Amino acid sequence: MSIRDIFKKNKPNRKTMTSKGQHDVPEGIVTKCPECNHVMLTKDLQKNQKVCPNCQYHHKLTSQERIEDFLDEGTFESFDDHLQTVNPLNFPGYVEKVKSDMKKTGLNEAVLTGTGMLEGNKVVVAVMDSFFRMGSMGSVVGEKITRAIEKATELGVPFIIFTASGGARMQEGVISLMQMAKTSVALERHGAKGNLFISIMTHPTTGGVSASFASLGDINLAEPQALIGFAGRRVIEQTVREKLPNDFQTAEFLLAHGQLDAVVPRSDMRKTVGTLVKLHVKEAV
Amino acid sequence: MVKTLPFEEPLVQLKTKITELKEYTSDAEVDLTKEITQLEERFTNLEKDIYHNLKPWDRVQIARHPERPTTLDYVKVLFDDFIELHGDRNFGDDEAIVGGVASFEETPITIIGHQRGKDTKENIRRNFGMPHPEGYRKALRLMKQAEKFKRPIICFIDTKGAYPGKAAEERGQSEAIARNLLEMAGLKVPIISVVIGEGGSGGALALGVANHVHMLENSTYSVISPEGAASILWKDATLAQKAAEAMRITAPNLKEEEIIEEIVPEVLGGAHKDIDTQASYLKEVLSKSLSELKTLDEEQLIDQRYNKFRKIGVFSEE
Lengths: 285, 318
Ligand SMILES: [Zn+2]
What we know:
Chain A: Zn(2+) binds at residues 33, 36, 52, 55. The complex is a heterodimer of chains A (285) and B (318). With 285 residues, chain A is α/β, with parallel strands linked by helices. Chain A is built from 10 helices and 11 strands. At the A-B interface, β4, α5, α6, α7 and β10 of A face α7, α8, α9, α10 and α14 of B.
């Protein structure tokens, strides 16, 4: 099945979605860049991988857009679209909110996982989606990512994740915290068998996701300007009572502090990761 | 005098009344022995009634009691030959985490734990038990050392969370926590973690990827503090009491979810009432846990740990 078919089946209206700023202008036709206020045709922004041609601001991608942008055309096959979120702590309205985001995004939860080809090499990918409950990680997200890692281990192929998450999903309590451990034990096993894991942090990657799989790549990459950090800026400002620099917790800040291998613009991402994967193909050596 | 918690007020009032009566009778001619005995009986019953029906918020308060025993308090009573080992060999020594070697029932072990202070001065030195990345990296160094010498590892979890500070972010707080989760998964020696106070979020979990996880009866383990949950869920931090119930953060809750193995019983009123007795309860659980894990070989230990965390999650496959 091609990815277009999949998207046709469960992803209505996803193509016209844009990131913040979309409320300022009539929906769909034009988009205003939230960073530089440049107004452009949405279709021109789409053509430019949703990177503002004026200031290079990387607009958020939906997980489907990311797959389309990143993998060889028509090679993606998704996993576990049937897993459903339940309400372990009986929080009023929780399932309803999840259902509404399912409808909005065409996803079953805040991550899309599956196999595909990257410049001719087979990979397993997971793409988190910050339009779904801010990409927060509950049981289904943890389970889907863990299953994807296990699949990559079983196939002996690289596991690649694009992270975008506000952290653990509070409405699932300590179970959501434990998803950090669950995904990490799976990554340990994947790595112990000599398999590659590449983590690509996109805006935003914070909290429990930042403090688990996002930081555990053999190679850790990030998109320009992405917000990446453990604690929220406001919490830190209240704790340390000092003004934080403007670039605090940006991808560039992390790179300067030795926390990232590279900051890679979206236009180079496919090529860069494709090359990294090629250099790690086991039979090649 | 130990600090009294709000839910203990009725006990304090009754105790005061009994003391007054006793004082009065020692000066007066009247004999109130019978009345006093009755009141003392009432006190014993009330004590049981209160302490056996603790609400989640009461447990949170016990877990945060300033005199609650810390990692080093238990180390003193439970282990012999403890020698503290410092530093991460890279940046510094984070005193919010302590670690070292010791023996437990004749077995050499490695001990690692969050360490709060008992007074303001010590709390400042130990950053209120909230570690920086170098604390987690020290912990990992000691775990790897334990693995090399085939020593079991015992971790004590007792933190509000990893420190949310500028320097912590610069030095990679996220990576330090994440690294421990991954490395603990692969260690070839038994790991036992016990939550002895507050188990706050990722900063707690970074010492928690163990074969067996136990909790003291009045300790808590949560993704966010009750105050934090209340302010996010209901935009009102004063609803922490309600959040403590809703978030299911107590030892009995986590036992029910099968996230922890054992609840370590506490002395009536909380661990701070009698540290020696409390340590003996803890010793019993640790001893049983360790002898169970000693029967597993390296591969079985790693598999057991994998399966323990692999199965956590609630969802439907419809
Ligand atoms: Zn722009």
